[in-house]
């Protein structure tokens, strides 16, 4: 995607205020690897795009949003998590607040070999959740919206969010790696997905945790 093509797509988004529609599973843009962001947008256009992505993510509501989810095949994502309000959930899932941040051309690599499984959903797969194994800790490398390098280790729920959003930029959805026997509709989520750990769900639905 050249600069003119990307700028034209972004301008089409910006003609209407955010929140913008979120692309749903089945759309090809969610299955195509994104192109790197290398300055194709002017500073004001990029700022407006990121502000719109933040609004769209918050209004959904979600804890992350990748550019393909609004129809753009470029390697940009935004993340933000207020953290868990339940103490047991926060402890078991290692879910602490993650301030708003922008990930440009992110990649991750596992730190250690520990994997953990928890129920996970997606703004592009509305109505469903499934237990998804993820690396407990990852090393994130990317740049921020100002071009500053980022190289840090994340653990727990923040690491899960980064893996989920970075996978979007690779054309992957969480259902590609989830335990599909754990799949629950939102109507059934209260029975399993809101518990701190999916251990009871694993026993009842017949799947193994990492």
Automatic annotation (TrEMBL):
The active site is at residue 165. GO terms for molecular function: metal ion binding; peptide deformylase activity. It catalyses: N-terminal N-formyl-L-methionyl-[peptide] + H2O = N-terminal L-methionyl-[peptide] + formate. Keywords: Hydrolase, Iron, Metal-binding, Protein biosynthesis. GO terms for biological process: translation. Its cofactor is Fe(2+). Its EC number is 3.5.1.88. Gene3D superfamilies: Peptide deformylase (3.90.45.10). Binds 1 Fe(2+) ion. Belongs to the polypeptide deformylase family. PANTHER family: PEPTIDE DEFORMYLASE, PEPTIDE DEFORMYLASE, MITOCHONDRIAL. This is Peptide deformylase. It comes from Actinotalea fermentans. The lineage of its organism: Bacteria, Bacillati, Actinomycetota, Actinomycetes, Micrococcales.
């Amino acid at each position: 995607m050249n600069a003119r093509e990307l700028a034209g797509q972004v301008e089409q988004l910006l003609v209407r205020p955010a929140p913008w529609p979120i692309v749903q599973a089945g759309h090809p843009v969610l299955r195509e690897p994104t192109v790197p962001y290398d300055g194709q947008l002017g500073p004001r256009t990029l700022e407006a795009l990121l502000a719109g992505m933040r609004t769209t993510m918050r209004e959904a509501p979600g804890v992350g949003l990748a550019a393909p989810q609004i129809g753009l095949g470029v390697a940009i994502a935004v993340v933000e998590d207020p953290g868990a309000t339940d103490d047991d959930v926060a402890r078991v899932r290692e879910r602490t607040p993650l301030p708003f941040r922008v990930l440009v051309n992110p990649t991750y690599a596992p730190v250690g070999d520990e994997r953990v499984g928890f129920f996970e959903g997606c703004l592009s797969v509305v109505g469903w959740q499934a237990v998804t194994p993820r690396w407990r800790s990852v090393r994130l490398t990317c740049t921020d919206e100002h071009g500053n390098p980022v190289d840090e280790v994340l653990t727990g729920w923040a690491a899960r969010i980064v893996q989920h959003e970075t996978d979007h930029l690779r054309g992957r959805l969480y259902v590609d790696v989830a335990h599909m026997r754990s799949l629950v509709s939102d109507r059934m989520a209260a029975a399993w997905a809101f518990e701190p750990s999916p251990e009871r769900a694993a026993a009842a639905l017949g799947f193994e945790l990492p």
